[in-house]
Design brief:
By secondary structure, this protein is mainly beta. The protein starts with a helix and ends in a 24-residue tail after the last strand. The strands form three sheets. A four-stranded antiparallel beta sheet has the order 4-3-6-7, with no helix packed on it. Strands 1-2-5 form a three-stranded antiparallel beta sheet, with no helix packed on it. Strands 8-9 form a two-stranded antiparallel sheet. It has one helix and nine strands. This is Lipoprotein. Keywords: Signal.
Length: 177
Protein backbone atom coordinates (compact mmCIF):
# COMPACT_ATOMS: atom_id res chain seq x y z
CA UNK A 1 0.00 0.00 0.00
CA UNK A 2 2.83 2.40 0.82
CA UNK A 3 4.50 1.57 -2.49
CA UNK A 4 1.32 2.38 -4.36
CA UNK A 5 1.02 5.78 -2.63
CA UNK A 6 4.65 6.48 -3.39
CA UNK A 7 4.19 5.62 -7.08
CA UNK A 8 1.00 7.71 -7.36
CA UNK A 9 2.73 10.64 -5.66
CA UNK A 10 5.78 10.33 -7.92
CA UNK A 11 3.55 10.16 -10.99
CA UNK A 12 1.57 13.22 -9.85
CA UNK A 13 4.80 15.13 -9.20
CA UNK A 14 6.12 14.18 -12.66
CA UNK A 15 2.85 15.31 -14.28
CA UNK A 16 3.02 18.67 -12.47
CA UNK A 17 6.65 19.16 -13.50
CA UNK A 18 5.73 18.43 -17.13
CA UNK A 19 2.91 20.96 -17.01
CA UNK A 20 5.20 23.57 -15.44
CA UNK A 21 7.81 23.07 -18.17
CA UNK A 22 5.16 23.26 -20.88
CA UNK A 23 4.03 26.58 -19.39
CA UNK A 24 7.56 27.97 -19.86
CA UNK A 25 7.24 28.00 -23.65
CA UNK A 26 7.54 31.39 -25.35
CA UNK A 27 3.93 31.92 -26.28
CA UNK A 28 4.79 34.93 -28.47
CA UNK A 29 6.23 32.65 -31.16
CA UNK A 30 3.38 30.17 -31.45
CA UNK A 31 2.36 31.51 -34.87
CA UNK A 32 5.92 31.87 -36.18
CA UNK A 33 6.98 29.27 -38.72
CA UNK A 34 10.57 30.52 -39.06
CA UNK A 35 13.02 32.53 -37.02
CA UNK A 36 15.93 34.61 -38.24
CA UNK A 37 18.97 32.60 -37.14
CA UNK A 38 21.75 34.56 -38.84
CA UNK A 39 22.50 37.59 -40.96
CA UNK A 40 25.77 39.00 -42.20
CA UNK A 41 27.61 40.61 -45.07
CA UNK A 42 29.96 38.21 -46.86
CA UNK A 43 33.09 39.88 -48.24
CA UNK A 44 34.97 37.71 -50.74
CA UNK A 45 38.30 39.43 -51.29
CA UNK A 46 39.50 36.99 -53.95
CA UNK A 47 36.62 37.67 -56.33
CA UNK A 48 35.96 41.27 -55.17
CA UNK A 49 32.32 40.79 -54.14
CA UNK A 50 30.13 41.46 -51.14
CA UNK A 51 26.70 39.89 -50.58
CA UNK A 52 23.94 39.77 -48.00
CA UNK A 53 23.54 36.34 -46.37
CA UNK A 54 20.50 35.52 -44.23
CA UNK A 55 19.63 32.21 -42.60
CA UNK A 56 16.25 31.10 -41.30
CA UNK A 57 15.50 28.22 -38.98
CA UNK A 58 12.15 26.42 -39.32
CA UNK A 59 10.14 26.30 -36.10
CA UNK A 60 7.40 24.12 -37.57
CA UNK A 61 7.22 21.49 -40.27
CA UNK A 62 7.79 22.96 -43.72
CA UNK A 63 5.10 22.33 -46.29
CA UNK A 64 5.74 21.20 -49.86
CA UNK A 65 6.29 24.12 -52.25
CA UNK A 66 7.01 26.84 -49.67
CA UNK A 67 9.26 29.69 -50.79
CA UNK A 68 11.09 32.59 -49.15
CA UNK A 69 11.05 35.88 -51.04
CA UNK A 70 13.70 38.26 -49.72
CA UNK A 71 13.80 41.97 -50.53
CA UNK A 72 17.24 43.41 -49.82
CA UNK A 73 17.79 47.15 -49.78
CA UNK A 74 20.09 48.06 -52.66
CA UNK A 75 23.10 49.95 -51.23
CA UNK A 76 23.70 51.48 -54.69
CA UNK A 77 20.17 52.94 -54.64
CA UNK A 78 17.21 52.08 -56.81
CA UNK A 79 14.89 49.10 -56.60
CA UNK A 80 15.30 46.47 -53.89
CA UNK A 81 17.14 43.29 -54.83
CA UNK A 82 14.64 40.42 -54.83
CA UNK A 83 15.65 36.80 -54.28
CA UNK A 84 13.19 33.90 -54.45
CA UNK A 85 14.45 30.82 -52.60
CA UNK A 86 12.78 27.39 -52.53
CA UNK A 87 12.40 25.98 -49.01
CA UNK A 88 13.05 22.25 -48.82
CA UNK A 89 11.03 20.37 -46.16
CA UNK A 90 13.92 18.25 -44.84
CA UNK A 91 16.50 21.04 -44.45
CA UNK A 92 17.20 22.32 -40.95
CA UNK A 93 17.92 25.85 -42.25
CA UNK A 94 17.21 28.11 -45.20
CA UNK A 95 20.11 30.17 -46.59
CA UNK A 96 19.38 33.21 -48.74
CA UNK A 97 22.21 35.01 -50.57
CA UNK A 98 21.78 38.26 -52.45
CA UNK A 99 23.41 38.98 -55.78
CA UNK A 100 26.74 40.85 -55.52
CA UNK A 101 26.35 44.35 -54.10
CA UNK A 102 27.93 47.72 -54.77
CA UNK A 103 28.33 50.74 -52.47
CA UNK A 104 28.13 48.97 -49.06
CA UNK A 105 28.99 51.48 -46.32
CA UNK A 106 30.26 50.58 -42.87
CA UNK A 107 27.85 51.05 -39.93
CA UNK A 108 24.87 51.96 -42.13
CA UNK A 109 21.68 49.93 -41.52
CA UNK A 110 20.16 48.26 -44.60
CA UNK A 111 16.57 46.96 -44.61
CA UNK A 112 15.73 43.35 -45.36
CA UNK A 113 12.22 41.92 -45.53
CA UNK A 114 11.34 38.28 -46.12
CA UNK A 115 7.98 36.77 -47.04
CA UNK A 116 7.35 33.08 -46.54
CA UNK A 117 4.69 31.87 -48.96
CA UNK A 118 2.93 28.54 -49.41
CA UNK A 119 2.75 26.69 -52.73
CA UNK A 120 -0.26 28.78 -53.83
CA UNK A 121 1.42 32.13 -53.03
CA UNK A 122 -0.43 32.69 -49.76
CA UNK A 123 1.42 34.50 -47.00
CA UNK A 124 2.60 32.27 -44.14
CA UNK A 125 4.89 34.73 -42.35
CA UNK A 126 6.69 38.06 -42.80
CA UNK A 127 10.06 38.87 -41.27
CA UNK A 128 11.78 42.28 -41.18
CA UNK A 129 15.27 43.13 -40.04
CA UNK A 130 18.17 45.45 -40.68
CA UNK A 131 21.74 44.52 -41.48
CA UNK A 132 24.85 46.54 -40.71
CA UNK A 133 28.26 45.93 -42.25
CA UNK A 134 31.39 46.16 -40.14
CA UNK A 135 33.39 47.06 -43.29
CA UNK A 136 33.17 49.47 -46.20
CA UNK A 137 33.22 47.93 -49.64
CA UNK A 138 36.35 50.00 -50.28
CA UNK A 139 38.38 47.25 -48.54
CA UNK A 140 37.76 45.01 -51.57
CA UNK A 141 39.87 45.14 -54.73
CA UNK A 142 38.23 46.80 -57.74
CA UNK A 143 38.40 43.62 -59.85
CA UNK A 144 38.79 39.93 -58.95
CA UNK A 145 42.36 39.15 -57.94
CA UNK A 146 42.37 35.89 -59.88
CA UNK A 147 40.66 34.60 -63.01
CA UNK A 148 40.08 31.25 -64.65
CA UNK A 149 39.98 27.72 -63.35
CA UNK A 150 43.69 27.82 -62.41
CA UNK A 151 43.33 31.02 -60.34
CA UNK A 152 45.75 32.98 -62.49
CA UNK A 153 46.46 36.59 -61.47
CA UNK A 154 43.99 38.98 -63.09
CA UNK A 155 45.86 40.72 -65.95
CA UNK A 156 43.66 43.84 -65.50
CA UNK A 157 45.34 44.39 -62.13
CA UNK A 158 48.91 44.24 -63.44
CA UNK A 159 50.88 47.03 -61.79
CA UNK A 160 48.22 47.45 -59.09
CA UNK A 161 49.22 44.95 -56.35
CA UNK A 162 46.57 46.24 -53.93
CA UNK A 163 43.86 45.58 -56.50
CA UNK A 164 42.75 49.23 -56.69
CA UNK A 165 42.54 50.75 -60.16
CA UNK A 166 42.76 54.50 -60.93
CA UNK A 167 39.09 54.56 -62.02
CA UNK A 168 37.92 52.49 -59.04
CA UNK A 169 35.12 49.96 -59.49
CA UNK A 170 33.42 52.09 -62.14
CA UNK A 171 30.32 52.55 -59.98
CA UNK A 172 28.88 55.87 -58.81
CA UNK A 173 27.57 55.42 -55.28
CA UNK A 174 24.95 57.62 -53.63
CA UNK A 175 26.33 60.19 -51.16
CA UNK A 176 26.71 58.93 -47.59
CA UNK A 177 23.79 60.04 -45.43
Amino acid sequence: MAERRFLCGAFALLALASLALAGCRDSGKESAHFELSGRLFVFNYRVATVQYLVTLRPLKLVGEGEVAIANFENPAGGEALVVRQQIWPLNDKVTINSPPLECVVKDRPYKVSIRIEDAKGGLIQSLETTMVSAQDQSVLPDKPLVVGPLYEPNPELKGHPGGHLPGGRGVTCPPAA
